[in-house]
User: Fold this.
Amino acid sequence: RHASPALFARLTSSGDKRPPPRMRTVAVALLGLSAAVALWSRPAAAARPSVSGAQCSAQGSDRQDCYPWQTSNLTASKCMAHGCCWDPTSPSAEQGSVAGVPWCFYPTIPAPAPGKCSAVTEAARLDCHPEPNASPSSCTARGCCWDAAAAVASPADGQLRGIAACFFPWTPGLAPAGPPTTTALGFNQTLVWGDADRRGPYGNDPDEVHVAVEYETNTRLRVRMTNPADPDAWDVTPLVRAAPAATRRAPSPLLKAATTETTGAPWGLVVTRPNADGSAADVIFDSTPGAAFGGAVFERQFIELSTALGPNEKLYGLGEHVTPLQLDANSTDGAGQTYTIFSRDRGTPDHAAHGATNLYGQHPVLYRLDPSTGRASAMVLLSSNAMDVVVRPGALTIRVIGGIVDLYLLAGPSPVEVAEQYAELVGKPGMPPYFALGFHLCRWGYDNATYFDSIVKGMEAADMPIDAYWHDIDLFEEHRDFTMDPVRFGEAQMGPIIDGLIEGGVRFGGIVDPAIQCNLAPGQYDVLDSGTAADVWVRNAAGDGYAAKGVWPGPTWFPDWIKPSTQGWWTEQLRTFRNVTRWGFIWLDMNEPAIISDDDGCTVPQSALPLPPQPAAGSAAAADAAAEAAVAAAGAA
Assistant:
């Protein structure tokens, strides 16, 4: 992940003191948190070999480590998936290096032509050396450009802000393999790499990228980019899209799309909105590479797509950040504003120009308004992968660490119509229950039933209106979900209080954190036992155990909501606990693997875990397994 050098810090807890990952290996930081994100760093079975021969001839101290952490998990396929060289020259007690010489190291790539460096504007630079101690030699060895002036202005700790000193050269990116072909919804086009000397930053670029442009409704245009050799690439659209799939082209679309048709020319997509008053059409999207930005890049672990912006456009959206309603596109160093989008459980820092201030919600939608005409439009990228959106005067660049491109352009033309079209795509907010709009009281610190009862009686004595009381995790026994502390909140104490609330028309509810304590023996915690029996927990990256991290009760496992069995198990826990507590609602505090510490003090023997299904023949997983076996055989030989 190269759009910002601070990605590792923004994706992991503040207490993680491991070295920041190098640019080609960042997706590994996410492994173990979710079964879904493991797809991001899976070796590309169908990608062309990235490096070989003289590019991997570096020896000794000339090798630059490409995999400096988690060396116990290092394999040849993991190394090569990051576009790096693999050479375990001799056995070593500490896997991954021999006397400081790494087994997995960056290839030596020819330095780029000077014109390809000068063609990259400062604001459009993509950092090629985000880790510390960048130098002219280490930068050019990666085939990247070096700017001595920017290096002087950059902090020495490697957390570069603004203008990168070592950056990727300009590339025309993808190019048409031929003209587009008409479909029932719009048109398709196949793209290939237009510049044989410069690929994406990982080096595992697919042979082809397929583009489908679809006129779904009169006001919505869909642009979908996929790698046909990677059908399992993570695609969040089926989970979040509310609009039904289109089956035929809209009869009178407001948007008109045109694409580069010349074989081998830098590919671009231009979408316009003709105006009924006869004035010049509004440009809604224009990814044609030029002076402001390079061409589109599409890899398994990195996607970059840019568009031109109008000179006076006002921008809104790109949540969740602490910003003014209208987004800023300027910065003091000329590098624009970076809006990082990736759900993170944290405080509320003010937005900073260099990004890394992402918050809890992920809303990759940008509203655009021309103040001179009052006409608006929007672009929506349905992706749950971490991304940076870099906004600067005249241009916008989206950089995503994997998945596919599923881009929607909304025609408006009024701001209200744009909002309606967005709601049609992703769904309208749910109508809350009537009592939820009333008066509620909640806090941490209702330490026991007696104190909580005094709060209830105090509210009654003061004649304060109240519709619901909420209780935090101090209700639980040792902070364990679906329990009540038998000493501080026993049934004999809490039962009459809850009955009185219900009789008075007041609801009582409590918190649920789906992180289940896992370091208890069988028979001590029914929720743990039943979840393990149903195999509902998120597995670790290797797939041979469960991913354990520290949350409120200590070391915990996380329910895997992608597994079909999980929902039934979870519903039963809620039903059983509600029969005890008479809760009138649930405070769902978290439904994702947000963690407090790296406490992984839970182990389950391999023999106790249900075995995962074997990969089907021809699947990407099977290809990975075959690649691992081939590498092992070659190493043994």
